[in-house]
Task: structure prediction
Amino acid sequence: MFLYDELYSRSDANNPVRVGLIGAGKFGSMFLAQVPTTAGLEVSMIADLDPARAKRNCADVGWPDELISGTEFVDDAMLLITSGNVDVVVEATGNPVIGVVHARAAIRNGIHIVMVNVEADVLAGAQLAHEANAAGVVYSMAYGDQPALTCELVDWARSSGFTVVAAGKGTKFLPAYHASTPDTVWDHYGMTAEQAAAAGMNSQMFNSFLDGTKSALEMAAIANATGLAAPDDGLLFPPAGMDDLAHVLRPRAIGGQLDTNGMVEVVSSLERDGRPVFKDLRWGVYVVLEAPNDYTAACFRQYGMNTDETGRFSAMYKPFHLIGLELNISILAASLLGKPTGSTKAFNADVVATAKRHLKAGEILDGEGGHTVWGKLYPVRRSLQMGGLPIGLAQNVKLRTDITENAPVRWQDVEIDHSLEAVKIRRTLERDPARLHP
Result:
């Protein structure tokens, strides 16, 4: 994209790209760490529920005093969005309900939005992207997070003339993890609760990575951005290392584990008995591709590509992702080129709240990574058929009925505030999911 030359020109002209950050947590702090060494980029405002903590985070990641004093810190994101002092908003709260509100406000004010908040994107991204396009602003995934990096690999493969067989990421997963709660999460990570607390690690957030919810959300985001299909009954999480991707992630009819070509999937870094996978892809992303002809398949062999036994399926992967440290790429692509680093195009995949245990009427759901529900990936066709409650709306809502373990929670099973903007936009999307398809 040749962003650096454009950025250098902005720096030389003393016309920096102005960024407003909403949410100065871990992801936001990783982005902030890169700001002092990025000429031509300026964080003009930071909105956080605790501005004093946000200032401390800036100091902790290496901001000099003069940079901190030159930045405005507020506790109201709407002040940031309506300030007229930002070119790009980074939404990094992780709260899907408020994230939808922030995104729509940025769009109304003609500001590009980088959506770190994958929860909000899966909840209503198709509508948000549609509104952004109509307003002439960019609605973008966050480069550095696995969905944007996976979409980049899919784009590379398709632009090079390959058929995309599968795409996704790696993670640490065993089937028992679906029942994990914030009380048990650190046992699975191999540390004590005290060690985690000393490191400032949030147990519910980290549990969402472990119990499969975050994986489902990220694969839904990829499916909605690329048109790849979601599995019909949730992610399989097959164990597979870097050398095994092309063998495992191909259609079942020819010896793989996929229903068909063109699917999202997450590979586990653990064998089902808990042994580590050889050359695991726990921190990375991948795309499995198919050679379109014999000549291309021969080139795979000649240039050392890892293939399946047929020689026609191969994989390209990136073994690591740097999360917020890479976020500048999205910000600069939006502001300098007017392009997203991945963006929702359609409502193809969804993530439904699913009971971790037998739940009783009157219980309060505690959302992503909590004690009550995990998020299961479905094609939209299935989630709408069952009337499934999106995981992004399964926070602080009361159950009307009992739910058996591993059963989906449905809209009709909960008491929910239908006046919330996020609920309204989601229900509108559900009534006509094909309306926004290109």
Notes: The chain has three domains: 3-144+324-337, 147-173+212-321, 349-436.
